[in-house]
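Translate structure to sequence.
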Protein backbone atom coordinates (compact mmCIF):
# COMPACT_ATOMS: atom_id res chain seq x y z
CA UNK A 1 0.00 0.00 0.00
CA UNK A 2 1.41 3.38 -1.02
CA UNK A 3 1.68 6.20 1.50
CA UNK A 4 1.49 9.93 0.88
CA UNK A 5 2.25 12.73 3.34
CA UNK A 6 0.07 15.83 3.42
CA UNK A 7 2.13 19.02 3.54
CA UNK A 8 1.63 20.93 6.82
CA UNK A 9 0.89 24.51 5.79
CA UNK A 10 1.72 25.76 9.27
CA UNK A 11 5.47 25.22 8.75
CA UNK A 12 5.66 28.29 6.52
CA UNK A 13 6.30 30.05 9.84
CA UNK A 14 9.66 28.30 10.12
CA UNK A 15 10.88 29.88 6.88
CA UNK A 16 11.82 28.60 3.43
CA UNK A 17 14.84 26.61 4.57
CA UNK A 18 12.79 24.46 6.95
CA UNK A 19 10.04 24.06 4.36
CA UNK A 20 12.68 22.70 1.97
CA UNK A 21 14.09 20.48 4.71
CA UNK A 22 10.66 19.03 5.39
CA UNK A 23 9.96 18.26 1.72
CA UNK A 24 13.37 16.65 1.18
CA UNK A 25 12.94 14.76 4.43
CA UNK A 26 9.64 13.24 3.32
CA UNK A 27 11.32 12.05 0.13
CA UNK A 28 14.35 10.64 1.93
CA UNK A 29 12.12 8.67 4.31
CA UNK A 30 10.78 6.73 1.32
CA UNK A 31 7.20 7.97 1.21
CA UNK A 32 5.51 7.70 -2.14
CA UNK A 33 3.99 11.15 -2.51
CA UNK A 34 3.76 14.65 -1.10
CA UNK A 35 0.18 15.92 -1.18
CA UNK A 36 -1.26 19.41 -0.94
CA UNK A 37 -4.55 20.32 0.71
CA UNK A 38 -6.40 22.99 -1.31
CA UNK A 39 -8.34 26.06 -0.31
CA UNK A 40 -7.81 29.55 -1.68
CA UNK A 41 -9.80 31.29 1.06
CA UNK A 42 -11.48 30.42 4.35
CA UNK A 43 -14.57 32.29 5.49
CA UNK A 44 -15.52 33.76 8.83
CA UNK A 45 -18.91 32.85 10.28
CA UNK A 46 -21.54 35.55 9.75
CA UNK A 47 -25.19 36.06 10.61
CA UNK A 48 -26.15 34.17 7.45
CA UNK A 49 -23.62 31.31 7.48
CA UNK A 50 -22.11 28.88 9.94
CA UNK A 51 -18.44 28.62 10.82
CA UNK A 52 -16.45 26.55 8.30
CA UNK A 53 -15.12 23.07 9.04
CA UNK A 54 -11.70 24.57 9.70
CA UNK A 55 -10.52 27.63 11.66
CA UNK A 56 -11.13 30.76 9.63
CA UNK A 57 -7.54 31.94 10.06
CA UNK A 58 -5.89 28.62 9.29
CA UNK A 59 -2.76 29.14 7.16
CA UNK A 60 -3.21 28.30 3.49
CA UNK A 61 -0.50 27.84 0.87
CA UNK A 62 -1.49 27.58 -2.79
CA UNK A 63 -1.40 23.90 -3.72
CA UNK A 64 0.15 23.92 -7.19
CA UNK A 65 2.70 26.57 -6.23
CA UNK A 66 3.95 24.47 -3.32
CA UNK A 67 4.11 21.35 -5.50
CA UNK A 68 6.11 23.30 -8.09
CA UNK A 69 8.50 24.37 -5.36
CA UNK A 70 8.74 20.75 -4.21
CA UNK A 71 9.39 19.59 -7.77
CA UNK A 72 12.51 21.74 -7.95
CA UNK A 73 14.08 20.25 -4.82
CA UNK A 74 13.14 16.57 -5.16
CA UNK A 75 13.95 13.78 -7.61
CA UNK A 76 11.70 10.80 -6.99
CA UNK A 77 8.67 11.49 -4.85
CA UNK A 78 5.22 11.80 -6.42
CA UNK A 79 3.41 15.12 -6.20
CA UNK A 80 -0.34 15.30 -5.73
CA UNK A 81 -3.36 17.25 -4.58
CA UNK A 82 -5.77 15.98 -1.99
CA UNK A 83 -7.98 17.54 -3.28
CA UNK A 84 -7.93 20.49 -5.68
CA UNK A 85 -11.35 22.18 -5.91
CA UNK A 86 -11.71 22.16 -9.70
CA UNK A 87 -14.94 24.18 -10.23
CA UNK A 88 -13.38 27.19 -8.49
CA UNK A 89 -10.74 27.35 -11.23
CA UNK A 90 -10.55 27.65 -15.01
CA UNK A 91 -10.12 24.08 -16.34
CA UNK A 92 -7.87 25.18 -19.20
CA UNK A 93 -5.52 26.92 -16.78
CA UNK A 94 -5.52 23.92 -14.44
CA UNK A 95 -4.73 21.71 -17.44
CA UNK A 96 -1.76 23.93 -18.28
CA UNK A 97 -0.49 24.15 -14.70
CA UNK A 98 -0.73 20.40 -14.10
CA UNK A 99 0.78 19.55 -17.50
CA UNK A 100 3.71 21.88 -16.77
CA UNK A 101 4.27 20.28 -13.39
CA UNK A 102 4.11 16.81 -14.93
CA UNK A 103 6.57 17.85 -17.66
CA UNK A 104 9.12 19.35 -15.26
CA UNK A 105 8.96 16.31 -12.96
CA UNK A 106 9.10 13.65 -15.66
CA UNK A 107 5.59 12.41 -14.94
CA UNK A 108 5.34 12.46 -11.14
CA UNK A 109 1.85 14.03 -10.82
CA UNK A 110 -1.33 12.55 -9.37
CA UNK A 111 -4.28 14.94 -9.47
CA UNK A 112 -6.85 14.63 -6.72
CA UNK A 113 -9.99 16.65 -7.46
CA UNK A 114 -13.18 17.56 -5.62
CA UNK A 115 -16.19 19.85 -5.83
CA UNK A 116 -15.62 21.58 -2.48
CA UNK A 117 -18.10 22.51 0.22
CA UNK A 118 -17.59 26.21 1.04
CA UNK A 119 -20.14 28.40 -0.74
CA UNK A 120 -18.57 31.62 0.54
CA UNK A 121 -15.24 30.68 -1.07
CA UNK A 122 -16.94 30.15 -4.42
CA UNK A 123 -18.71 33.48 -4.09
CA UNK A 124 -15.48 35.33 -3.25
CA UNK A 125 -13.80 33.78 -6.30
CA UNK A 126 -16.68 34.75 -8.59
CA UNK A 127 -17.81 31.18 -9.27
CA UNK A 128 -21.22 29.53 -9.04
CA UNK A 129 -21.52 27.14 -6.09
CA UNK A 130 -24.84 25.62 -7.14
CA UNK A 131 -23.73 24.15 -10.46
CA UNK A 132 -20.29 23.05 -9.30
CA UNK A 133 -21.01 19.35 -9.77
CA UNK A 134 -22.01 19.65 -13.42
CA UNK A 135 -19.05 21.93 -14.10
CA UNK A 136 -16.77 19.41 -12.38
CA UNK A 137 -17.87 16.61 -14.72
CA UNK A 138 -17.37 18.82 -17.75
CA UNK A 139 -14.09 20.19 -16.44
CA UNK A 140 -12.50 16.74 -16.06
CA UNK A 141 -13.43 15.89 -19.65
CA UNK A 142 -11.82 19.11 -20.79
CA UNK A 143 -8.61 18.46 -18.82
CA UNK A 144 -8.18 15.11 -20.50
CA UNK A 145 -8.94 16.58 -23.90
CA UNK A 146 -6.18 19.18 -23.52
CA UNK A 147 -3.70 16.58 -22.26
CA UNK A 148 -4.42 14.03 -24.97
CA UNK A 149 -5.83 15.53 -28.16
CA UNK A 150 -3.80 17.28 -30.86
CA UNK A 151 -6.62 19.70 -31.64
CA UNK A 152 -9.20 20.39 -28.98
CA UNK A 153 -12.78 21.03 -30.06
CA UNK A 154 -15.05 21.02 -27.04
CA UNK A 155 -18.64 22.15 -26.79
CA UNK A 156 -20.07 21.88 -23.29
CA UNK A 157 -22.74 23.63 -21.31
CA UNK A 158 -20.18 25.65 -19.35
CA UNK A 159 -16.88 25.37 -21.24
CA UNK A 160 -16.02 25.70 -24.90
CA UNK A 161 -12.90 25.34 -27.03
CA UNK A 162 -12.80 25.67 -30.82
CA UNK A 163 -9.74 24.39 -32.69
CA UNK A 164 -7.36 24.96 -29.79
CA UNK A 165 -3.81 23.64 -29.46
CA UNK A 166 -2.17 22.55 -26.21
CA UNK A 167 1.57 21.86 -26.25
CA UNK A 168 3.63 20.37 -24.80
CA UNK A 169 1.61 17.38 -23.80
CA UNK A 170 2.48 16.10 -20.32
CA UNK A 171 4.59 12.91 -20.10
CA UNK A 172 1.58 10.98 -18.77
CA UNK A 173 -0.65 12.45 -21.48
CA UNK A 174 -4.37 12.10 -20.89
CA UNK A 175 -3.42 9.38 -18.41
CA UNK A 176 -2.43 11.76 -15.63
CA UNK A 177 -4.17 9.99 -12.73
CA UNK A 178 -7.35 11.79 -11.73
CA UNK A 179 -8.56 10.72 -8.30
CA UNK A 180 -11.82 12.05 -6.90
CA UNK A 181 -12.37 12.93 -3.26
CA UNK A 182 -15.52 12.74 -1.16
CA UNK A 183 -18.10 10.24 0.01
CA UNK A 184 -21.51 11.48 -1.19
CA UNK A 185 -23.40 9.30 -3.70
CA UNK A 186 -22.64 11.45 -6.76
CA UNK A 187 -18.92 11.43 -5.92
CA UNK A 188 -18.93 7.63 -5.83
CA UNK A 189 -20.71 7.61 -9.19
CA UNK A 190 -18.06 9.91 -10.67
CA UNK A 191 -15.29 7.62 -9.48
CA UNK A 192 -17.07 4.63 -10.99
CA UNK A 193 -17.78 6.39 -14.28
CA UNK A 194 -14.45 8.08 -15.03
CA UNK A 195 -12.13 8.36 -12.02
CA UNK A 196 -8.76 6.66 -11.73
CA UNK A 197 -9.18 6.41 -7.99
CA UNK A 198 -11.19 7.35 -4.93
CA UNK A 199 -9.91 9.52 -2.08
CA UNK A 200 -12.28 8.62 0.72
CA UNK A 201 -13.24 11.34 3.19
CA UNK A 202 -15.35 11.42 6.37
CA UNK A 203 -15.81 7.63 6.47
CA UNK A 204 -17.36 6.50 9.75
CA UNK A 205 -16.34 2.84 10.07
CA UNK A 206 -14.79 -0.17 8.32
CA UNK A 207 -18.28 -1.36 7.43
CA UNK A 208 -19.09 1.96 5.77
CA UNK A 209 -15.76 1.93 3.92
CA UNK A 210 -16.49 -1.54 2.56
CA UNK A 211 -19.97 -0.50 1.49
CA UNK A 212 -18.74 2.61 -0.30
CA UNK A 213 -16.02 0.72 -2.14
CA UNK A 214 -18.57 -1.87 -3.19
CA UNK A 215 -20.77 0.88 -4.64
CA UNK A 216 -17.85 2.18 -6.67
CA UNK A 217 -16.94 -1.26 -7.97
CA UNK A 218 -20.54 -2.13 -8.83
CA UNK A 219 -20.90 1.21 -10.61
CA UNK A 220 -17.68 0.62 -12.55
CA UNK A 221 -18.91 -2.75 -13.75
CA UNK A 222 -22.21 -1.19 -14.81
CA UNK A 223 -20.24 1.43 -16.76
CA UNK A 224 -18.20 -1.25 -18.53
CA UNK A 225 -15.01 -0.54 -16.58
CA UNK A 226 -12.68 -2.88 -14.74
CA UNK A 227 -13.17 -2.18 -11.00
CA UNK A 228 -9.68 -3.49 -10.27
CA UNK A 229 -8.22 -0.56 -12.20
CA UNK A 230 -9.73 1.99 -9.78
CA UNK A 231 -7.46 2.90 -6.87
CA UNK A 232 -8.73 3.27 -3.31
CA UNK A 233 -7.34 5.63 -0.68
CA UNK A 234 -8.27 6.47 2.89
CA UNK A 235 -6.38 8.50 5.46
CA UNK A 236 -4.29 6.80 8.12
CA UNK A 237 -6.36 8.75 10.68
CA UNK A 238 -8.94 6.82 12.76
CA UNK A 239 -12.43 6.17 11.46
CA UNK A 240 -14.90 8.83 12.51
CA UNK A 241 -16.69 6.54 14.97
CA UNK A 242 -13.44 5.85 16.85
CA UNK A 243 -12.03 7.91 19.68
CA UNK A 244 -8.98 9.47 18.06
CA UNK A 245 -7.48 11.03 21.18
CA UNK A 246 -3.87 9.94 21.50
CA UNK A 247 -3.90 8.10 18.17
CA UNK A 248 -0.94 9.98 16.71
CA UNK A 249 1.10 9.44 19.88
CA UNK A 250 0.68 5.66 19.57
CA UNK A 251 2.90 4.47 16.73
CA UNK A 252 1.98 0.75 17.06
CA UNK A 253 -1.69 1.69 16.77
CA UNK A 254 -0.89 3.65 13.61
CA UNK A 255 0.81 0.56 12.15
CA UNK A 256 -2.26 -1.53 13.02
CA UNK A 257 -4.43 1.02 11.25
CA UNK A 258 -2.21 0.72 8.16
CA UNK A 259 -2.69 -3.06 8.19
CA UNK A 260 -6.44 -2.66 8.66
CA UNK A 261 -6.76 -0.39 5.63
CA UNK A 262 -4.75 -2.81 3.52
CA UNK A 263 -6.99 -5.70 4.61
CA UNK A 264 -10.07 -3.71 3.62
CA UNK A 265 -8.73 -3.32 0.09
CA UNK A 266 -7.18 0.13 0.09
CA UNK A 267 -3.98 0.47 -1.94
CA UNK A 268 -3.18 4.06 -0.89
CA UNK A 269 -3.24 5.87 2.42
CA UNK A 270 -2.21 9.35 3.51
CA UNK A 271 -0.73 10.83 6.66
CA UNK A 272 -2.31 14.10 7.72
CA UNK A 273 0.50 16.05 9.40
CA UNK A 274 -1.81 18.53 11.15
CA UNK A 275 -2.79 15.99 13.83
CA UNK A 276 0.92 15.16 14.23
CA UNK A 277 1.55 18.85 14.86
CA UNK A 278 -1.37 19.02 17.28
CA UNK A 279 -0.08 15.92 19.08
CA UNK A 280 3.16 17.70 19.92
CA UNK A 281 5.39 17.57 16.83
CA UNK A 282 5.64 21.35 16.63
CA UNK A 283 8.80 21.73 14.51
CA UNK A 284 10.06 20.40 11.20
CA UNK A 285 12.58 18.25 13.06
CA UNK A 286 9.88 16.78 15.32
CA UNK A 287 7.54 16.15 12.39
CA UNK A 288 10.24 14.30 10.47
CA UNK A 289 11.14 12.26 13.55
CA UNK A 290 7.51 11.21 13.97
CA UNK A 291 7.17 10.43 10.26
CA UNK A 292 10.34 8.31 10.49
CA UNK A 293 8.79 6.37 13.39
CA UNK A 294 5.60 5.79 11.39
CA UNK A 295 7.57 4.76 8.31
CA UNK A 296 9.59 2.23 10.32
CA UNK A 297 6.49 0.88 12.05
CA UNK A 298 4.49 0.31 8.89
CA UNK A 299 7.49 -1.15 7.07
CA UNK A 300 8.07 -3.58 9.93
CA UNK A 301 4.37 -4.47 9.91
CA UNK A 302 4.45 -5.03 6.16
CA UNK A 303 7.44 -7.36 6.30
CA UNK A 304 6.67 -8.98 9.65
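Result:
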Amino acid sequence: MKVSVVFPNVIYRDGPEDVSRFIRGVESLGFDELDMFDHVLMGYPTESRKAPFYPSQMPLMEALMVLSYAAAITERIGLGTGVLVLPQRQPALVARQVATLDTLTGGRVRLGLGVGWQASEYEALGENFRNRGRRFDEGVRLLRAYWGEEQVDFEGEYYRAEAMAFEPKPPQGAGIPVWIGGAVPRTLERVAEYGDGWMGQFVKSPEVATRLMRKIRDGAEAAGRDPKQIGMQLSLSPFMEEKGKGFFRDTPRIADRYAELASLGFNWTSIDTVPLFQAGARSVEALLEKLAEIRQAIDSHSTG
